[in-house]
C-alpha cells in the first residue's frame, strides 16, 4: 500500500458518515477511506422509518436506495465509491496518541486496531428509553434503527390493534399519522401540548384538534408510571397519572440523546447540551478528529447559543463539510435554525428560527402576528388554507422565527423564511422579497408577504391586535369587553364563538350601526381571518372609538371551542 495515501476512518454508517465518505472520495480520489458501522444496514433514510412502518414505503431496501434505485450496501460502497465498509463492527476506543481506533467484529469477537490520519465520529443518537417499570416487555419498542422499524411494522401487521405512543413530538405524531387507519392510537405526552418544542401553544392546539378529529386519544400533561404485562411477558396496558390504557403495542418516542461515549472516553470536549463540541470546521477539540450528525451540538443562527438539533438534513450537511475538510479543504458549517417540517393527517406543519416562547425566554423584545391565508389564488381549484405565525424583535424589526401549518402548501413559505432568517432579514425586507406568482402557485401577495405586512402594521402601531391565547385567558377571567363579529350573516350562522359578550354587526353595516357599540368599553373585533377585523378597527377609530383591537387569525386560527349548532337566519 502507498504510505502517502491519507487514511480517513469514519465511525458510523447511517447519514453523516456515508455522506462524509462519499464527499471525501470525490475530493481525494487517492485516499484510503473506511467506514465502521455497528449495525447491518448502511446509509438509510432514518426519517423515512415511520412511512415504512405505515406501509407507504413497501420495502425497507427503498430507504437504502439511491434515486436510481441502487441499494447502498457494502458492495455499492466498495465497487462504486472505492470505500471499505465494516458492518457488524463496533468501535471500542480511540487512541489519540497513536491515532488508532480499537474495533470489535461482533460476529467473531475479533478485536483489532484501525489506524487513521483523519477520524470522523458520526455515531448518531439513541432513543431515550425512560426507566419505566415494564419498558422491557415484549411489544415495547423504540425507533432507533431500521431493525427496530422492521420489528414495529411486523407487530403492526400481525397483532397490534391498540397502540400507545409515549411522546407527542415529531416522531410520535408521524407514527400516529401512518398508523391511524390501522389501529386505535393513544398518545401520552408529559407536556401540556403536542409538539411543545416546535410550536407555540395556540398552534399546537390546532394540531391537537386534527388528531382528535381523526380518533387519536391525547393524554396530555401526564406521565407514564409503568407498563404492565399480560402474565406471559407481553405488554397489556400503559398506566399513567391520568389512567390506564390497554395496549398490544407501545412505541417509546420520547426523544433521542447523542451517542458520545466514544468521544467522552477519548477525552474530547462535550458541549453544554451534552453532545460533542465542534468548531465551524466541525473539528472536535482534537483537530484530527471531526464529528457530525446527531452526536454533535450546533450553534443557533439567531440566538448564537449551542443547541442540540438531531435532524437528517443537518447530518447530511455536516457530512459534506467534513468530507471536504478531511480531504484538505476548509469548508465551514455556520449553524442551524431548528427548521423542521412534518405531516399529520391532512395538516402540514413547519417551523424555523425561534418560537415566541423561546424568544421571550431568551430576553428578546418580542412582537408576533398570526395570519391565515389561502396557499394559492382563492379562485383557483385546489386552493387550501394555511396559517402563518411570524415572530420578530420589536426593537430591531429583525425576523426571529416562523411557524406555518395547514392543509395547504407550507414548504415553500417555510424555506423562504429560512432564507430570510439566514440573511438576518428584517420583517420589512421579507415583505419586499420578489416571490413568484401565478394563480396555480400563490396569491398576488404571497401569504408570507401578507403575514410580514401584517406584522409591520403591528410594529408601526397601525394595527392593534391580540393573540387568541390572550383573548381566551381574559374570557376565562371574566373581564368586561365586547367581542365584535363583523362577518357576513351566512358565516355567522355557520359557526360562531360561544360567548355571551359577542355582538354581531357585518362590516358593511358597521358605520351606520356603530352607535350601538359602547365607547366606554374595550372592543375586540374578529372575522374569519381578521383582515376585516383590522378594517373594522380602523373604521371604529375614525368614529372616535379609542379602545379597539382585533384578535389575530380570526375564526380560522381560533384554537378553542366553536358553536356550529344550527341557527335560524
Give an overview of the whole structure.
The protein is an alpha/beta fold. The chain folds into four domains: 7-125 and 257-326, FAD/NAD(P)-binding domain (3-Layer(bba) Sandwich); 140-254, FAD/NAD(P)-binding domain, CATH 3.50.50; 346-457, Enolase-like, domain 1; 465-557, 3-Layer(aba) Sandwich (Oxidized Rhodanese, domain 1). It contains 17 helices and 30 strands. A five-stranded parallel beta sheet has the order 3-2-1-7-18. A five-stranded parallel beta sheet has the order 9-16-10-11-12, with helices on one face. A hairpin with a 5-residue loop joins β5 and β6. α1 packs parallel to α8.
Q: What is the gist of this entry?
A:
Belongs to the class-III pyridine nucleotide-disulfide oxidoreductase family. This protein is α/β, with parallel strands linked by helices and 569 residues long. The protein contains 17 helices and 30 strands.
Comma- or semicolon-separated keywords:
FAD-bd_OxRdtase; five-stranded parallel beta sheet; Enolase-like, domain 1; 17 helices; oxidoreductase activity; alpha/beta; FAD/NAD(P)-binding domain; Pyr_nucl-diS_OxRdtase_dimer; 569 residues; flavoprotein
